[in-house]
Write a structure and sequence with these properties.
Blueprint: H1 7-32, H2 37-86, H3 91-106, E1 110-116, E2 122-128, E3 137-140, H4 145-153, E4 157-159, H5 172-177, E5 180-190, E6 193-203, H6 211-270, H7 283-306
Antiparallel strand pairs: 1-2, 1-6, 2-3, 4-5, 5-6
Length: 307
């Protein structure tokens, strides 16, 4: 098909060239043609929707990142609390450590831990984030209705706007002065009974206390209940061992006193003239007495090894 002079190839190129030349002016005409009002409105609407979707997607992404960051902080706090709990079996130290960790994690105005008292009318403040020196302070529940409700009902109490809450009107001025925003009370329960509570109070200009934060504190309250149970078992075991040690010591003193009495009695009896008179006994009797004494001492030594 290709001739020696390449003419056919030249025609093909010309054909393609003519086609390109024919199409190009049409494209240029369409590009230069002005859009009507409807087309412009449609274009603007499409751009607005695209921008809105991009903005909404960005907000969702930012919210998800913030949520993951909050979960990370919660997990780190739980790990630190577990480390603190496992390093001590004294419940006061455990509770003080938990109050400190929660206060630092949320930047709280107040974080306190209370334990129930017999009778149900008072509780005992045993740990405080804002004042670690408070360890054993009795609190009347009538002064803290939110704490009373959490202890009696065994349910979490969350007050979003504490200064304007009707149940706290008697301390409204104090809450305003302290710039208090919200109050959360999470009961510490064991076998369905509230044995204490974690009391948290946030600043008005501080971060919002979310539902995830409340659930996190509920997890901490559950860990606290288990830690208190373990500490109670340890202290009860230590007390029992101490009581057992005291009993053994008392028994040892009784044994020493009894033997000292017998020794003194025999010495006093032997000092009397002719008291022993062992020469009157037959030789066989004396040997039998020596044998019985040897057997008795061997039995006593074996019993001592068994104890």
């Amino acid at each position: 098909m290709n001739g020696p002079d390449g003419g056919e190839n030249h025609d093909e190129k010309d054909a393609h060239g003519l086609e390109a030349t024919a199409v190009r002016p049409e494209r240029q005409r369409l590009a230069k043609q002005p859009l009507d009002a409807a087309s412009v409105a449609d274009a603007n609407y499409a751009m607005t929707i695209s921008s809105a979707l991009t903005h909404a997607e960005g907000e969702r992404l930012a919210a998800r990142v913030a949520e993951l960051e909050r979960e990370r902080k919660h997990l780190l706090a739980v790990i630190e609390i577990l480390k603190e709990v496992s390093s001590s079996l004294h419940f006061i130290d455990i509770l003080q450590s938990i109050a400190r960790k929660l206060g630092e994690a949320f930047g709280l105005d107040r974080c306190s831990i209370f334990l129930a008292e017999r009778g149900g009318k008072t509780v005992r403040l045993v740990a405080s984030y804002e004042d670690p020196t408070i360890r054993n302070y009795v609190v009347d529940l009538e002064r803290y209705p939110e704490l009373k409700r959490a202890m009696q009902e065994g349910e979490t109490v969350f007050i979003h706007d504490a200064p304007n809450d009707p149940s706290l009107k008697h301390v409204k001025s104090e809450l305003i002065n302290r710039r208090v925003k919200s109050i959360t009370v999470v009961p510490i329960t064991w076998r369905g009974v509230a044995i204490g509570a974690i009391f948290l109070r946030t600043f008005r200009d501080g971060p919002t206390f979310s539902d995830e934060d409340v659930r996190f504190v509920q997890v901490v309250a559950s860990l606290t209940a288990q830690a208190l149970r373990n500490a109670h078992r340890y202290e009860r075991l230590a007390r029992r061992q101490e009581e057992t040690g005291d009993a053994l010591k008392r028994m040892e003193l009784e044994r020493v006193a009894l033997l000292s009495f017998f020794r003194r009695l025999m010495e006093a009896f032997g000092q009397r003239e002719g008291a022993w008179a062992e020469g009157l006994l037959p030789r066989a009797s004396a040997e039998e007495l020596d044998r019985l004494v040897g057997v008795a001492m061997a039995v006593i030594q074996e019993e001592a090894k068994g104890r």
